[in-house]
């Protein structure tokens, strides 16, 4: 239960991202926002610990950094600037199903029927909570939202499969740095010179980097190690719940009985799937996911 609670803090913090991006950060600069969110805190962690990848962990860190950070951040902020938060959250709600599918196709971990059912309940809850039938669809925004969901789902599965060879904050720093180094030149090439930042922008970036990125991703990667991959992906459904409440409290948005029913359905699916995950030992996945390897042997 302690691992579930700590891991759930990550999507809870992420739920504030939509409000921060739209209210506190420079407009229409998705790649810049993504790069500043990842690179400074990643470099700070790497330089603080001075532990660098060895052997196969050079390319593994690059792959994980690209999926969990680089591609995910770029697609997420592109979708955020072009779509309503409800559409982005609805597309993101399919992540548990994708994690289940990728684990099955890539590593032979057969899905439990109940988990599939709970995933459907979670998606239905998100739809009731955030989807606005009158929202305008943008093709590029929808594609970016799908891309973000695919990147995060595949990143969760590979992070679980490869394990963590170094301390948690070092592992987090590797991925943030790799993702940030991918994003920074893209931001400069496609968006040009960064604009002058206001005090409001600086506060938004500080919260985004320290809380929504450094702390949250450390908790997220720890959860992937401690829990089942599909347990972790279900906790991501907390993000649209927090985003909806943040919009209600900060932006004076409405909150209807239908939305409340969606919240109830989301929490119902979360409770059921976490209880299912706690019934058996996480070591049951050992036959599907490779054990941790000695990092000192990776030469």
Quick gist of this model?
The chain has 13 helices and no strands. It has helices at residues 2-14, 17-23, 30-49, 57-82, 85-92, 95-107, 113-130, 139-162, 168-191, 199-226, 229-235, 238-250, 257-279.
Spell out the blueprint of helices and strands.
Elements: H1 2-14, H2 17-23, H3 30-49, H4 57-82, H5 85-92, H6 95-107, H7 113-130, H8 139-162, H9 168-191, H10 199-226, H11 229-235, H12 238-250, H13 257-279
Description:
With 299 residues, the chain is mainly α. The chain has helices at residues 2-14, 17-23, 30-49, 57-82, 85-92, 95-107, 113-130, 139-162, 168-191, 199-226, 229-235, 238-250, 257-279. α1 crosses α12 (238-250).
Can you tag this structure with a few keywords?
mainly alpha; 0% strand; 75% helix; 299 residues; 13 helices
């Amino acid at each position: 239960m302690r691992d579930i609670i700590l891991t759930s803090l990550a999507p809870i913090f992420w739920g504030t991202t939509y409000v921060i991006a739209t209210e506190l950060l420079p407009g229409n600069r998705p790649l810049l926002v993504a790069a500043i969110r990842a690179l400074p805190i990643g470099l700070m962690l790497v330089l603080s610990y001075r532990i660098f990848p060895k052997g196969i962990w050079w390319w593994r860190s690059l792959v994980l950094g690209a999926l969990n950070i680089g591609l995910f951040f770029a697609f997420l902020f592109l979708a955020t600037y072009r779509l309503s938060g409800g559409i982005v959250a609805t597309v993101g709600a399919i992540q548990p199903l994708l994690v289940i599918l990728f684990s099955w196709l890539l590593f032979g971990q057969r899905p439990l029927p109940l988990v599939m059912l709970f995933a459907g309940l979670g998606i239905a809850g998100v739809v009731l909570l955030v989807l606005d039938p009158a929202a305008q669809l943008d093709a590029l925004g929808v594609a970016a939202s799908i891309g973000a969901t695919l990147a995060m789902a595949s990143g969760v599965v590979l992070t679980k499969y490869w394990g963590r060879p170094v301390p948690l904050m070092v592992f987090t720093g590797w991925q943030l740095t790799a993702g940030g180094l991918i994003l920074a030149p893209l931001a400069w090439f496609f968006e040009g010179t960064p604009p002058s930042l206001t005090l409001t922008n600086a506060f938004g970036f500080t919260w985004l980097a320290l809380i929504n990125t450094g702390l949250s991703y450390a908790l997220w990667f720890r959860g992937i190690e401690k829990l089942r991959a599909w347990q972790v992906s279900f906790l991501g459904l907390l993000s649209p719940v927090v985003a909806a409440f943040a919009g209600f409290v900060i932006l004076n948005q409405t909150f209807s009985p239908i939305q409340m029913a969606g919240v109830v359905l989301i929490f119902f699916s979360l409770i059921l799937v976490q209880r299912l995950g706690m019934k058996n030992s996480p070591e049951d996945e050992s036959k599907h996911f490779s054990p941790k390897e000695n990092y000192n042997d990776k030469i």
